[in-house]
Amino acid sequence: RLASMLRSNLGMAMQGLAVVPLFAGFDLSEQTGRIFSYDVTGGRYEEHDHHSIGSGSMFARGALKKLWSPDMAQADATRIAVAALYDAADDDSATGGPDLTRGIFPIVTVVDRDGYRRLTDEELEPIIRELIVSRTGDSGGARGSGVDR
Predict the structure, then answer these.
(1) Boundary residue ending a domain (9, 31, 48)
(2) What is the CATH number of the domain that holds 132?
(3) pTM, rounded to two decimals
């Protein structure tokens, strides 16, 4: 159904108003998370392990590729997702990252067998603060990943 909605918006996409969703959820019958990406024509692609979309996605995907591992704890996955967004925002001016000064936090959600839950700004703030402190004065390379593993 989402694919047909995207196809019906193709005219607007050709004029520059495109929507490219990333759909993630938990498959109760398979007992696993699943990720689907879409293109502007409505093409649907199942992704595996992790994925990112948007202008900064190649930077985020690089961080995810380096830091992701199967069966990681939710706290580690949250730190890695925030680090990937931070990397993308650092290298792509069209990607917004966290801003502690102005109280701007990303929307981070957890989807698992128990359902959907959005993390609060109060839960994210210490994770973001730790990441920023670890990156201060560092180029953000392998030494400055901001994720202890």
Answers:
(1) 48
(2) 3.60.20.10
(3) 0.82
Tell me, yes or no, whether 13 and 32 share the same domain: yes
> In angstroms, rounded to a whole number, what is the distance separating the alpha carbons of residues 88 and 82?
10
Rounded Cα–Cα distance for residues 78 and 109 (Å): 9
Q: Are residues 25 and 71 in the same domain?
A: no
Q: Which residue has the tokens 């400055």?
A: 144
Residues 6 or more apart whose CB falls under 8 angstroms from that of 133 comprise: none
pLDDT tens digits for range 38-92: 999 999 999 999 999 999 999 999 999 999 999 999 999 999 999 999 999 999 9
How far is residue 66's CA from residue 71's CA, in Å, rounded to a whole number?
Answer: 15
- Residue 47 pairs with which residues in a beta bridge? 35
Contact 106, 85 (CB under 8 A): yes
Structurally, the chain folds into a number of domains equal to 2
